[in-house]
Amino acid sequence: MRKRRIMMVLLVLLLCLQSTFVLAKTEPKINTNVKVLVNDKTVSSDAPPYIIEESGITMVPLRFISEALGAEINWDPKPKKITIHMESNSIYLTIGQKTAEVNGKKSALEVAPELRNDWTMVPLRFVSESLGAEVKWEAATKTAKIYSSGNNVPDVKPEEPDAGKEPEKKPDPTPVPKPEDPNKVPDTGQVNQDEMRAAWIATVFNIDWPSKPGLDIAKQKREFTDMLDNLKNIGMNSVIVQVRPTSDALYPSKLVPWSKVLTGTQGKDPGYDPLAFMIEETHKRGMEFHAWFNPFRANTDTKVEQLADNHPAKLHPDWVVAHRGLLLFNPGIPEVRAHIIDAIMEVVRNYDIDGVHLDDYFYPYGISDEPFQDDATFAKYNPKKIADKGNWRRDNINQFIQQLSASIKQVKSKIEFGVSPFGIWRNQSDDSTGSKTNGLASYDSLFADTRTWIRNEWIDYVAPQLYWSIGFKVASYDTLVDWWSQEVKNTKVKLYIGHAAHRLGTNSTDWATSDAIIGQLQYNSKRPEVKGSIFFSAKNLISNPVGIREALQTFYNKAN
What we know:
- A hairpin with a 2-residue loop joins strand 11 (114-116) and strand 12.
- The protein folds into two domains: 30-148, 2-Layer Sandwich (Copper Amine Oxidase, Chain A, domain 1), CATH 3.30.457.10; 196-558, Glycosidases (TIM Barrel, Alpha-Beta Barrel), CATH 3.20.20.80.
- Helices cover 31% and strands 20% of the residues.
- It is of the alpha/beta class.
- The chain is globular, with a radius of gyration of 25 Å.
- The relative contact order is 0.09.
- InterPro entries: Cu_amine_oxidase-like_N, Divisome_Glycosyl_Hydrolase, GH, GHL10, Mao_N_sf.
- This is Family 10 glycosylhydrolase.
- Keywords: Signal.
C-alpha cells in the first residue's frame, strides 16, 4: 500500500514537471526593458510594454493607444475583437488572430494581439503607423519613438533592422533630395519600355502624394516631380496614380467633388489641375501614366455629413451601404455602376492617359464577419433570376467590368484597361482548378471572377497583388505566379505582378533584405507570361529600405 502511494506521488510530480516543461517551452520570451515616447514625451502605462524576443515585435497595452494617440477604442470581450478608430482610419483586430483589417483591407500580422495578465496587448508599430503616426526605433537604448500625425519627425538616419525593431509593412521614409531647378529633369538615361516597371502612387490618406493636405501648389508639384525623378532613376517606366480615392477627384469633375487629399477640404478647388500636371510631367520623362480608380469606395468613414454637397453618396443616400466603418457603393444597383463608369470615362475623354487601372475593391473585405446589407437590392435588381446571391454579386461585377471595357475601347481603343485583384482567385480546396493556397479568395470573398474577365479578354492586363514571399506556406509567391501564368496563357491579356515593397525592412526573415523582391523578379524572368512588375508603393522604393533602390537599379541594368 505504501509503495502504491509513493508511486502515485512520483507520478503526480512527473506530470507536474512535464507541464512545467511544456509551458516553459511554449511561452515566448519577452523583454520588458523597452521605453516608449510619444512626440518625445515619456508615456507611462499600468502594464509595461515588452518586446517578444523571437520576433522582435514591441507590444503595448490597448489603453496606451487610446491615451497616447487619442484613438477611440472599442473592446468586445465575447468574440475578443478590438476596434480602433482615429480620424479617417479604422483598424479591426482579434485576439489570437494574425490577420488585421485596416481601412477595409486585410493585412497580415507577424504576431497576433494577445491577453497577458488580463491586459490586452497589441503590436505597437503596426497599430501606430496604421493610424498615420510614424515610429522610430533606437536600438542602443531600446526606445520606440512615436510621432503622431502633424508632429515633426526628427531628420535622422534610420537604423538598420535589429532584434529590437518590430517588423512592419511601412518602412520609415527618408527625405528625397530636391533638384536645384524644379523644372529640370535629371538625365537618368532611357527607361526600358519592353516590360512594365511601375510603382503605385496612392493618394488616399496621403500615403504617397501629396505628403499632406493643404500644401501650396508649388510644393505639391515639386513633391510629384521629385517622386517621378527618383522612380525613373530606380528603373521605373510607368506610374499608376490614384486619381479617385473616395469617389472624389484629383481633377475638375462635373460628377464628383475635388478630393480632400489636396486641400484638406473635400470640394475645395486646389487652384490648378493636378491630373493634367501629373500626366504632362510623366510623359515628359518618357514614362507611362495609368489613372488608378477605386470604383466602389464612397468614403473611408460613415460620416455623410462631412462629405461635399455634390458627393454622390450625399446626393443619392440609397446608393450606399455602411460596412465595417466604411461607406461603400452598392454594386447591385445598375445606376451605381453606370455612374462609376461615367466618372471614369470623364477622365478617358478629357485626358491623355495611357491606362485605366482598378484595384482590388469590388464587394468589400470582411463580409464573413459583418454581412453586406444588400438583401433588398438582390430582390429588386435581379432580372436574370439568379438564385444564389454570390453568383448574383459576381454577375454585377462582371457586367461592370464588361461595360467599362467596352466604353473605354469605343472612345480610345489604345488605352489599356487593367485590374489589380487580390492575389488568390480560388483555393484548390474549393475549386480543383484553383491555386494550391489556403487564404482569402477574391472569387468567394470579394465576388471578383478574374478568370471570366481574362477568358473574355475584357481587360488588357491583370496585376494580381502577390504580397507573399517565396515559400510562404499559406500562399507561396512562386505557386501563385505559376497559377496566374497559366490563366493568361493563350490569351491577349498581359500578366504583371504586384510586389510588396511595403513589407521590406522588417525583422521577418522573409522580408529582411532586398533579396526578397529581387528573388521574385528573378523567378518572374523565367516565366514568359510575366510581362512586368508593379511595386506598392512609390514611397517605399524611394525611402530605400534594406537597399532596394540600388538592388533594383542593378537588376534592371543587367536586364537592359
